[in-house]
Amino acid sequence: MDPLDIVGNLSNIKPAYQPVFSAVKHDIIGYEVLGRIDHEGVWKSLGDFFQDSQVPDEFKLEVDTHILTIAIEDIMKHDDKKLLFINRNAKELMLENGETFIEALQPFVERGFSLSRIVLEITEHDFDEDFESLNHLLLYYKTYGIQIAVDHVGAKSSNLDRLRQLEPHILKVDSKVLRDNDSSGYQDIIYSLSMLARRIGAALLFENIEDSFQLYYAWKHGGRFYQGFYLGEPSYHFLDPFEKESLIKSQVDSFIRREKEVIEKRLEFVLKWDQCLRDSLVHWDGPKRADSYLDKVTSDFNYESFRMYICDSNGKQISSNFRQRDEEWIKEPEILGTNWAFRPYFLENMMQMKTWNKGRLSDLYSDIETREMVRTFSFPLSDHHFIFIDIRYDFIYENESLLM
């Protein structure tokens, strides 16, 4: 549609509301406000209008303000305390120094509407604008109690520092990426976003959830809020807050059962390997005979491991590398004396093994040499010496509990 036809027919425009669900109570905590226009008897999305860079920002602001006004009126009539998620782009917000947005909200504040119920959504792409000015404007909005959400997070990993500086209340993660063919690197991005969210006190909202798997992914990766057609499509009225409670609860219950089974199976491996090495301690005769000890242990891990070695409590390797090649264990003495204490969590893990006298299984990580995803099982041979057994990828792949 022609932008002039849209701006000139505000009476044919109204908001649609897509529910946002809580992972805590499985109820609706708010609605994202989406623009719709009646075009020849058919309600159509205004997404193309708002995303068209050729449309003047003043036009978008006028339509957005019209939609916002109706949405707040609707939710106040409904006597609901739910949040309203409002989309804005940076250029539109910064018109007239950002005051237009506040001025549109002020009449409702005077009628008792709390601005803490407004969640202002910007996209990560908006960071390409004048970020410092945008940051100052959003800080100003925060003083009114307005919450800030950043949409499409992870689109640019270089923006993590800006996200940290901005400290939004909510980070919105697009579940559609899981349907792409090349989503392997997305796991690392989600992990980074999860860590960042914890540090800045932000909640993760997974949007575009369209099936049970994507809901599981959101749940498993710490999503506090869920949104998508699988749970609720946009509509022109507000729903019963607990309309999808039974669906979400049944799904989450199945996720919990599955996760418990996976953890239990993984712990079985840990206990098995721990006992195996505990039994092998009769062969441990101190650091000077470390290679001799490994000669006896390797056969116990023919199927699971591709490499093992021993370090002292300072991270210095006191044995050769024992590497399995073509079903034979090959000794690599040139590695003797290298130091691995620089690795993240290395010293932490050794101190925990010493304190609890138990073996530990690492998280999945990419091996520097093989570039494959591996885990390492480590075990205290004494208070000062520790064996490290690298679990090969094909064994991990065959056992789902080690992949998760």
List keywords for this structure.
404 residues; alpha/beta; TIM Barrel; Beta-Lactamase; 2 domains; 8-stranded mixed barrel; 16 strands; 23% strand; elongated
Structure description:
- This protein is α/β, with parallel strands linked by helices and about 400 residues long.
- It has helices at about 5, 45-50, 55-75, 90-95, 100-110, 130-140, 160-165, 185-200, 210-220, 245-280, 290-295, 345-355, 395-400, 400-404, and strands spanning about 15-20, 30-40, 40-45, 85, 120-125, 145-150, 170-175, 205, 225, 305-310, 320-325, 330, 360, 365, 375-380, 385-390.
- Strands 1-2-4-5-6-7-8-9 form an 8-stranded mixed barrel, surrounded by 4 helices. Strands 10, 11, 12, 13, 14, 15 and 16 form a 7-stranded antiparallel sheet that branches.
- Helix 6 links the parallel strand 5 and strand 6.
Structural category: alpha/beta
N/C terminus separation: 48 Å
Number of domains: 2
Strand content: 15-25%
Backbone CA Rg: 28 Å
Number of strands: 16
Unreliable residue runs: none
What is the fold-level CATH name, i.e. the topology of the largest domain?
A: TIM Barrel
Biggest β-sheet strands, sense, barrel: 8 strands, mixed, barrel
